[in-house]
Amino acid sequence: MTKKTYDSDVAFIQALAELLRENDLTELQVKRDYGEDDSLNVRVSRMQPAPAQNYAAPPAPGYGAPMAPAAPAPAAEMAEDPASHPGAVTSPMVGTVYMQGEPGSPPFIRVGQQVSEGDTLLIVEAMKTMNHIPAPRAGTVKRILIEDGAPVEYGAPLVILE
């Protein structure tokens, strides 16, 4: 590889890293072909900070009342990944979670509560639209994995139903 190609590759990788940062992405992968037997495969990723434990996220302005943190789960449950639990209900979108329908009203669910299929578990606000997240099946709420007003990613575990 020539010095010129090396310099352009470094500039290319720096540009990818900048795209990653500017667009708040966690990973970016690109393949650049120079010819039949010459290519550059680049994967740029960054670590996300671990979520802080045992604090209540402030609710969005004018929406939601602060809630008491959920009771801590037994140590055996904390060791496993909640997303891999067979009863995990995951977020179908990126947004902000709300545990009640309007400020001052009781939350939709509590730990230990029985729910029926289709009952609203919580709301995920995405693009100014309130999306009710229904229970995919009947069961008991074993764990609530998010706080009221917290941001969530697509596929993030929200609740454990058993």
Outline of this structure?
This protein is a component of the acetyl coenzyme A carboxylase complex; first, biotin carboxylase catalyzes the carboxylation of the carrier protein and then the transcarboxylase transfers the carboxyl group to form malonyl-CoA. This protein has 162 residues and is α+β, with helices and mostly antiparallel strands.
Characterization of the model:
- The protein is of the alpha+beta class and 162 residues long.
- The chain has 2 domains: 3-45, no CATH class; 75-161, OB fold (Dihydrolipoamide Acetyltransferase, E2P).
- Helix content is 15%, strand content 32%.
- It has 2 helices and 10 strands.
- Strands 3-10-8-5 form a 4-stranded antiparallel sheet, with no helix packed on it.
- Strand 1 and strand 2 form a beta hairpin.
- The chain is elongated.
Low-pLDDT parts are 52-56, 62-66
Cα radius of gyration in angstroms: 21 Å
What share of the residues does DSSP label as strand, in percent?
Answer: 25-35%
- Alpha-carbon distance between the termini? 58 Å
